[in-house]
């Protein structure tokens, strides 16, 4: 097979990779993207972890399970009642798979539209010669490129001595494929994946116990939001135990047994049908053959890059989960765009200080910028304003008044330093705050902008007003 030469070759077709490839092609570069994800028929399934076993399928299951919970527990107050309500888990999973395939096919369409050459298989470095990098696909050297963008993502981190079998001990992948709601479900790790997957199966009838090693719940989240979330999740039925130390884990034909010490040091045992392990993710450089070109990795196995996503090699770049920074799909996308533009001699930019975070539980949790605890630790003087959804007309009409919006602003300049939301559609509401912070807006700016009535976004305005202690509806 003859070697095909490209201006840019992207290894990995997840959010960072496919976006980098599309933007590079838009900028006039002859571009290729290599991705090895397969669908159940062995065909290409670009989109990476996010599309195949992460963001997209988890949101599909969260939506289905939330419909089921609303029908069982909340629709009656709207005058809607139903008898013999049942959940067809197989059909729910099939819908999830359809949503995933639609996204896979959408990426393949975008490659064709933007004239990106797609290669299905595992990409790896072979060597470098005459200013070009030779890349193999499935072990066969087939591509050469001046620029290479590595976007190979991350893998679920397993507990030492307890590998994933995706039957009893599950990663995020297995957690999305459980064929029926288990009677008892264990979750190790009270992070985003653990809480979202725990919520899905709790709504469908599982008794869920979450074991978290940290002594505080959602330590990265604003303390007020985390406190509210813990209260709500406990009321919903999630048993979240903090400060635990995991011991021996045993699997059998019937389930999993977890030995652990609780926060007081007392020995406990948890017996469950299924165990989801969600203790973080590790950069994926398996099979990339970095040794062939001398690509540098750090002690975590991540590719070492500078602020512009440049590696130690000329014209080799890396983005997304495989480099430093938060493992978020939208962060990877922004880096992918920025790298493509830097290759073109432009000034691509990513502001890591205003990347939004979201946990898609019910209520949703979203935030951007600094938390109160961070500002206190920095010794920065700030003002805080908070407004509850209970006082918002649209939230009352929705029947979902849990939570609040909190805004933090500099005590002297009034610049918005952080916004923290727990409540309905928090994932959408946070976008306004990201825009405001990108333009260095003050809380007064948000307070003076007209928001539609009735809308949930009025709570953002009211939180801004609260910074100056002049809320109008609370």
Automatic annotation (TrEMBL):
<feature type="domain" description="Pyridine nucleotide-disulphide oxidoreductase dimerisation">
    <location>
        <begin position="355"/>
        <end position="464"/>
    </location>
</feature>
<keyword id="KW-0520">NAD</keyword>
<dbReference type="Pfam" id="PF02852">
    <property type="entry name" value="Pyr_redox_dim"/>
</dbReference>
<comment type="similarity">
    <text>Belongs to the class-I pyridine nucleotide-disulfide oxidoreductase family.</text>
</comment>
<dbReference type="InterPro" id="IPR016156">
    <property type="entry name" value="FAD/NAD-linked_Rdtase_dimer_sf"/>
</dbReference>
<feature type="binding site">
    <location>
        <position position="59"/>
    </location>
    <ligand>
        <name>FAD</name>
    </ligand>
</feature>
<feature type="binding site">
    <location>
        <begin position="152"/>
        <end position="154"/>
    </location>
    <ligand>
        <name>FAD</name>
    </ligand>
</feature>
<protein>
    <recommendedName>
        <fullName>Dihydrolipoyl dehydrogenase</fullName>
        <ecNumber>1.8.1.4</ecNumber>
    </recommendedName>
</protein>
<feature type="domain" description="FAD/NAD(P)-binding">
    <location>
        <begin position="6"/>
        <end position="336"/>
    </location>
</feature>
<keyword id="KW-0274">FAD</keyword>
<feature type="binding site">
    <location>
        <position position="280"/>
    </location>
    <ligand>
        <name>NAD(+)</name>
    </ligand>
</feature>
<feature type="active site" description="Proton acceptor">
    <location>
        <position position="453"/>
    </location>
</feature>
<dbReference type="Pfam" id="PF07992">
    <property type="entry name" value="Pyr_redox_2"/>
</dbReference>
<keyword id="KW-0963">Cytoplasm</keyword>
<dbReference type="GO" id="GO:0050660">
    <property type="term" value="F:flavin adenine dinucleotide binding"/>
</dbReference>
<feature type="disulfide bond" description="Redox-active">
    <location>
        <begin position="50"/>
        <end position="55"/>
    </location>
</feature>
<feature type="binding site">
    <location>
        <position position="212"/>
    </location>
    <ligand>
        <name>NAD(+)</name>
    </ligand>
</feature>
<dbReference type="GO" id="GO:0004148">
    <property type="term" value="F:dihydrolipoyl dehydrogenase (NADH) activity"/>
</dbReference>
<feature type="binding site">
    <location>
        <begin position="189"/>
        <end position="196"/>
    </location>
    <ligand>
        <name>NAD(+)</name>
    </ligand>
</feature>
<dbReference type="GO" id="GO:0005737">
    <property type="term" value="C:cytoplasm"/>
</dbReference>
<dbReference type="InterPro" id="IPR036188">
    <property type="entry name" value="FAD/NAD-bd_sf"/>
</dbReference>
<keyword id="KW-0676">Redox-active center</keyword>
<keyword id="KW-0285">Flavoprotein</keyword>
<dbReference type="InterPro" id="IPR023753">
    <property type="entry name" value="FAD/NAD-binding_dom"/>
</dbReference>
<keyword id="KW-0547">Nucleotide-binding</keyword>
<feature type="binding site">
    <location>
        <begin position="327"/>
        <end position="330"/>
    </location>
    <ligand>
        <name>FAD</name>
    </ligand>
</feature>
<keyword id="KW-0560">Oxidoreductase</keyword>
<feature type="binding site">
    <location>
        <position position="321"/>
    </location>
    <ligand>
        <name>FAD</name>
    </ligand>
</feature>
<dbReference type="InterPro" id="IPR006258">
    <property type="entry name" value="Lipoamide_DH"/>
</dbReference>
<dbReference type="GO" id="GO:0006103">
    <property type="term" value="P:2-oxoglutarate metabolic process"/>
</dbReference>
<dbReference type="InterPro" id="IPR050151">
    <property type="entry name" value="Class-I_Pyr_Nuc-Dis_Oxidored"/>
</dbReference>
<dbReference type="InterPro" id="IPR004099">
    <property type="entry name" value="Pyr_nucl-diS_OxRdtase_dimer"/>
</dbReference>
<feature type="binding site">
    <location>
        <position position="123"/>
    </location>
    <ligand>
        <name>FAD</name>
    </ligand>
</feature>
<dbReference type="InterPro" id="IPR001100">
    <property type="entry name" value="Pyr_nuc-diS_OxRdtase"/>
</dbReference>
């Amino acid at each position: 097979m003859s070697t095909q030469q490209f201006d840019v070759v992207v290894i990995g077709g997840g959010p960072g990779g496919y976006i980098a490839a599309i933007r590079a092609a838009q900028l006039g570069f002859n571009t290729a993207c290599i991705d090895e994800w397969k669908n159940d028929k062995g065909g290409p399934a670009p989109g990476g972890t996010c599309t195949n076993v992460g963001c997209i399928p988890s949101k599909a299951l969260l939506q289905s399970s939330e419909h089921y919970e609303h029908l069982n527990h909340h629709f009656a107050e709207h005058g809607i009642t139903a008898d013999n309500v049942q959940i067809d888990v197989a059909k729910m999973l099939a819908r999830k798979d359809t949503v995933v395939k639609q996204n896979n096919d959408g990426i393949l369409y975008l490659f064709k539209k933007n004239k990106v050459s797609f290669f299905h298989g595992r990409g790896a470095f072979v060597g470098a010669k005459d200013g070009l990098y030779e890349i193999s696909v499935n072990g066969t050297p087939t591509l050469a490129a001046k620029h290479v963008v590595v976007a190979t993502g991350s893998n679920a981190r397993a507990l030492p001595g307890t590998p994933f079998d995706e039957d009893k001990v599950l990663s995020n992948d297995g957690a999305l494929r459980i064929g029926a709601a288990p009677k008892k479900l264990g979750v190790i790790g009270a992070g985003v994946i653990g809480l979202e997957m725990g919520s899905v199966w709790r709504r469908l009838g599982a008794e869920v116990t979450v074991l978290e090693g940290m002594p505080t719940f959602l330590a990265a989240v604003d303390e007020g939001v985390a406190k509210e979330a813990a209260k709500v999740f406990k009321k919903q039925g999630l048993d979240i135990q903090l400060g635990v130390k995991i011991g021996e884990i045993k699997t059998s034909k019937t389930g999993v047994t977890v030995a652990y010490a609780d926060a007081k040091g007392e020995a406990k045992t948890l017996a469950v049908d299924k165990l989801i392990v969600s203790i973080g993710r590790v950069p994926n450089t398996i099979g990339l053959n970095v040794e062939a070109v001398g690509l540098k990795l750090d002690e975590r196995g991540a590719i070492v890059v500078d602020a512009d996503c440049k590696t130690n090699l000329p014209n080799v770049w890396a983005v997304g989960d495989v480099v430093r920074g938060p493992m978020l799909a939208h962060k990877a996308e922004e880096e992918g765009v920025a790298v493509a533009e830097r290759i073109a001699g432009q000034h691509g930019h990513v502001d890591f200080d205003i990347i939004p975070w979201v946990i898609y539980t019910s209520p949703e949790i979203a935030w951007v910028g600094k938390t109160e605890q961070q500002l206190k630790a920095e010794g920065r003087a700030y003002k805080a304003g908070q407004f509850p959804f209970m006082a918002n007309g649209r939230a009352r009409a929705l029947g979902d008044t849990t939570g609040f919006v909190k805004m933090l602003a500099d005590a002297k300049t009034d610049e918005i330093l952080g916004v923290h939301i727990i409540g309905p559609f928090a994932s959408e509401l946070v976008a306004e705050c990201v825009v405001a912070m990108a333009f260095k807006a003050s809380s007064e700016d948000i307070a003076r902008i007209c928001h539609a009535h009735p809308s949930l976004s009025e709570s953002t305005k009211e939180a801004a007003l609260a910074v100056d202690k002049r809320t109008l509806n609370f």
